[in-house]
Amino acid sequence: METTQATPKASTNPPQNEAANAEDAEELDYAPLQVGDATQGLLAWQRSGDIASKTPRPIGGSVAQRSYERYLKSFEFPIPERLSSTVKTTAGSGGAK
């Protein structure tokens, strides 16, 4: 199943205030995207399985066993309230000037 998305029309004069934004939204045949809309759309797409590969990619037994053991071992230590940083903050630790 193939879907297409409408793209907003390019404006030669960018809006100067919220009233102009509202006018531009009225010209479109759909509501403008809000923060998080793209993420929600991608998650829905992932849940649907519409774009899932038809080729199975199983994990080998020994690799799966080691991964599961590593997962179980992660529960042996409590999650710290705060993480300390090991990033150096001294001058001169950056890239080329």
Any overview of this molecule?
This protein is mainly alpha-helical and 97 residues long. Helices cover 36% and strands 0% of the residues. The chain is built from 3 helices and no strands. It starts with 17 loop residues before the first helix and ends in a 24-residue tail after the last helix. 0% of the residues are buried.
Q: How much of the sequence is in beta strands? A: under 5%
Number of E-type strands: 0
Instruction: Using the alpha-carbon principal axes, give the shape.
Output: flat
Largest sheet: none
Output the radius of gyration.
24 Å
Total DSSP helices: 3
What's the order of the H and E elements? HHH
The chain-level structural class is mainly alpha
- Amino-to-carboxy terminus distance: 52 Å
| Mean of all residue-level pLDDT scores | 75
**Residues in helices, as a percent range:** 25-40%
Uncertain runs? 6-15
In brief:
The chain is mainly α and 97 residues long.
Provide keyphrases for this structure:
97 residues, 0% strand, mainly alpha, single chain, 36% helix, 3 helices
Give the topology, please.
Blueprint: H1 18-27, H2 37-48, H3 61-73
